[in-house]
Design brief:
- It is a single chain.
- With 129 residues, the chain is an alpha/beta fold.
- It has a domain at 19-27 and 53-129: 3-Layer(aba) Sandwich (Rossmann fold).
- It is built from five helices and five strands; from the N terminus they run E-H-E-H-E-H-E-H-E-H.
- Strands 2-1-3-4-5 form a five-stranded parallel beta sheet.
- Helix 1 links the parallel strand 1 and strand 2 (32-34).
- The termini are close together.
């Protein structure tokens, strides 16, 4: 399956690192990066109706609008973009993982930072078409 890749994290160092790892692993030559969930929502709003599905790497803990808030928006009935979410977080709280998988669009939950092994597993499990 062909995806548009986006990364949302309020830490610019993590954004840079994840972008480089995604490029190295050839998931996306030029992933979209956003340092806030609100900027990611603007991105979704501007996607054309016939856009490729989005593979979204999403942090949980962010100011103003956190990852949970963004998940709520993309799970609303009126949200029509195809999005598959990988939660990428520093949280080690088991209840966060349980909560994440209660959302139908969440396909994985991993600890920061992304690494090659996680991306290889993701490609094998979810991105084969």
């Amino acid at each position: 399956m062909n995806f548009t890749v986006a990364v949302v994290d309020d830490d610019n160092i993590i954004l840079f690192l994840h972008k480089k790892i995604l490029q190295k692993e050839k998931l996306e030559e030029s992933p979209h990066t956003f340092n806030s969930a609100k900027k990611a929502l603007d991105f979704f709003d501007n996607l054309p109706d016939n856009a490729k599905p989005v593979l979204l790497f999403l942090d949980i803990n962010m100011p103003v609008m956190n990852g949970w808030d963004l998940l709520e928006v993309i799970h609303q009935d009126g949200f029509e973009k195809e999005v598959h979410v990988v939660m990428v977080t520093s949280s080690v709280d088991a209840s966060d993982k349980e909560k994440a998988f209660s959302y139908s669009k969440v396909i994985d939950f991993v600890e920061k930072p992304l690494d090659e092994q996680v991306l290889q597993r993701l490609k094998l499990r979810f991105l084969q078409s």
